[in-house]
Design a protein that fits this description.
Blueprint: E1 8-12, E2 20-24, H1 25-38, E3 46-47, H2 48-55, H3 70-83, E4 87-90, E5 96-99
Antiparallel strand pairs: 1-2, 3-5, 4-5
Helix pairs in contact: 1-3, 2-3
C-alpha cells in the first residue's frame, strides 16, 4: 500500500475545538495504547515530561525506531485524548495528566 493510501485516524486538539487532522492510524493507535498503559486512573497523574519518558518502553520499534518522533506524538495524543474526554488534566505547575476512563 502506498504511503498516501495508508489508513488514517482523526486527531483532535482540546485547544482547538471543532478542528481535526488526519494522521497515520498505526502510529496513532500505538501511541494511544502506550499512553493509556502508563497514565494513572487518578489525579494528580503524571507530568508531560514523565509521560513522554514512560511511553517509550511501550512503543513498537518498527513505528518509533529509537523513540523517533515520540515527543510530537505524545503531545498530539495527549491533546486528542483530552478533547475526546479520555484524559484529564490537573491544573498544577507543572501540568499533570490522568485517565478519566
Amino acid at each position: 500500500m502506498a504511503n498516501s493510501e495508508a489508513a488514517k485516524a482523526e486527531l483532535e486538539n482540546v485547544n482547538h475545538p471543532g478542528t481535526s487532522r488526519l494522521v497515520d492510524a498505526a502510529m496513532y493507535e500505538a501511541m494511544k495504547r502506550a499512553l493509556l498503559a502508563v497514565l494513572p486512573r487518578q489525579a494528580p497523574g503524571l507530568t508531560v515530561a514523565e509521560l513522554q519518558h514512560r511511553v517509550l518502553a511501550h512503543l513498537p520499534e518498527d513505528l518509533y525506531p529509537g523513540g523517533a518522533k515520540a515527543g510530537w506524538w505524545t503531545k498530539a495524543l495527549q491533546l486528542d485524548l483530552e478533547a475526546k474526554g479520555i484524559v484529564g488534566r490537573t491544573k498544577t505547575t507543572p501540568l499533570r495528566l490522568h485517565r478519566l476512563r
